[in-house]
Structures are given as structure tokens and as C-alpha cells.
Amino acid sequence: MSTFTANCKECGVEMVFPSSKQGAAVNCPLCKTLQTVGRGADVAWFFGAVFGCYGTLMVGFGIGLGFGLINGIVPLSITMAVLLVVSTIVLGLVLVCS
Q1: Angle between the 43-71 and 74-97 helix axes, to the nearest 10 degrees?
Q2: Contact 61, 35 (CB under 8 A)
Q3: What pLDDT does residue 39 have?
Q4: Higher-confidence residue: 98 or 32?
Q5: What pLDDT score does 50 carry?
Q6: Has this prediction a pTM greater than 0.70?
Q7: What torsion do the CA atoms of 70, 74, 76, 77 make, to the nearest 10 degrees?
Q8: How far apart are CA 89 and CA 82, in angstroms?
Q9: How far, rounded to the nearest angstrom, does the alpha carbon of residue 91 sit from its chain's CA centroid?
Q10: Per DSSP, what are the bridge partners of residue 4?
Q11: What phi and psi, each to the nearest 5 degrees, are found at residue 36?
Q12: Is 6 helix (H, G, I), strand (E, B) or coil?
């Protein structure tokens, strides 16, 4: 099992934790200060995947919206515009809830 070390922000004592505690809130054994230690390794992957999927969808919806507007296809334009708005709302909810 791999471990990582973290230093208390208040008193500077070094603490050793298992890697499963990355991003957890712990109390310092010396000064009892509650603090977050480490950072989850998958956080960067999560945000990369969220923005990557969002960007890919926006490109497709934007092309569809442009095609619909240029060719006067009103149902396509409305559908793509609604999908753009709904996708942006979903992105906002994902970011707020994570």
C-alpha cells in the first residue's frame, strides 16, 4: 500500500497517510486542527473529461445551429439552440455539485 506525507498548516508536524486518504479532511494529532490533506489524483482527469465532452458537444451543436441558420431550417436551428442551452446548464450543475 502506498503512502503520502502531509504537513500540518498550523504547527508543521509531518503526518503519514495511506493514498486512500488523498483529499480527506483529518485532524492534526498534535494541535487538533481540521484540514484537508493531499489532492485526489482523479480531479484533473474529471475536469478534463467534463470540459472535453462539453467542448466536443458544443462544436457539434454549433455546426448544426450554423447549418440550420444558413439554410433556413428552423426546426434544426431551434433544436441545436435548445441543446446548447441545456448542455450549458448541465455543465454548470456538474461543476457546482462536484
Answers
A1: 160
A2: no
A3: 72
A4: 32
A5: 92
A6: no
A7: 60
A8: 11
A9: 9
A10: 17
A11: -95, 135
A12: strand
- Say if residues 22 and 38 touch (Cβ distance below 8 Å): yes
Strand partners, 54: none
- Give CA–CA dist 25/29, Å, rounded: 13
Residue 15: strand, helix, or coil: strand
Give the whole-angstrom CA distance, residue 19 versus residue 60: 39
First to last CA, the chain: 27
Q: Residue 84: which of 59, 49, 52, 50 has the closest Cα?
A: 59
Number of residues that make up the chain: 98
Cell numbers standing for residue 93: 450543475
pLDDT digits (tens, 9 = 90+) for 39-63: 755 677 888 899 999 999 999 999 9
